[in-house]
Amino acid sequence: MSLNLIDTSPVRHKISILRDVRTNTKEFRELAGELAQILCYEALRDAPLKRYEVTSPICAADGYLLDENDYVFLPILRAGLGLVDGLLKFMPNARLGHIGLYRDETTLKPVKYYYKTPADISNKHVFILDPMLATAGSALAAIEILREQGVQQLSMICLFAAPEGVRKLEENYPDVTIYAASLDERLNENGYIVPGCGDAGDRLWGTK
Ligand code: PRP
Ligand code: URA
User: Fold this and answer.
1) Domain residue limits at 199
2) Could you identify the atom of ligand 2 that is nearest to the CA of residue 79?
3) Does residue 38 lie in a domain region?
4) 196 in ligand 2 pocket by Cβ < 6 Å?
5) 0.85 cut: is pTM over it?
6) Per the domain annotation, does 58 fall within a domain?
7) Could you tell me where the DSSP H helices lie in the chain?
8) How far is Cα 62 from Cα 26, in angstroms, rounded to an integer?
9) Which of 49, 94, 176, 183 is the most buried (most CB within 10 A)?
10) Ligand nearest to the CA of 182
């Protein structure tokens, strides 16, 4: 099972406001960032730590360092950008790659238009960021490219996931862990998540 559903009470509270058609752009952006941060904390729950000695006002103690250099965040443009700010609040020096993919509206197949990452990411743990995991076409395309670059450790952070997309990812890449805030009911005939939050890119960037 590669789905890790983080549906705690605070997350369900925030996800409900994100769904709400009345939620404005500012609030939508803030909530998406906050949820990304919560999911990232969970995704790093058992992350390896480097030990060092820290001195408190009282005495020396064991300190633990989570090394930002071990990670790369890869937002899928455009909507994935909405998760970046929240993550950078937690890991301000984290390095980022960008992948531009959009879904062709008739075939629902992803079309790549941009790809840039830090040099040699093969030994990094890469977190793919996208608020929506619908058919999983976009996530699969991103994973294929990353695998070609030799990346082994891969996780995906999304806010809304459809069962169809989760199944597809689990079948093709069972070693990629998905951290999601909500597992929704299904996809509709246009490939939109039901109930979902509509078009995440449009809601984040005010394009409709
Ligand atoms: C949305 C979303 C995902 C993709 C999910 O992007 O942000 O990237 O659809 O759908 P899938 O799982 O079926 O591939 P969209 O193509 O609308 O592009 P945008 O972010 O530029 O709006
Ligand atoms: N992309 C979105 O923005 N929303 C969906 O529900 C599905 C794909």
Assistant:
1) 3-48+67-205
2) 3
3) yes
4) yes
5) yes
6) no
7) 9-19, 25-43, 84-90, 137-148, 163-172, 200-205
8) 41
9) 176
10) 2
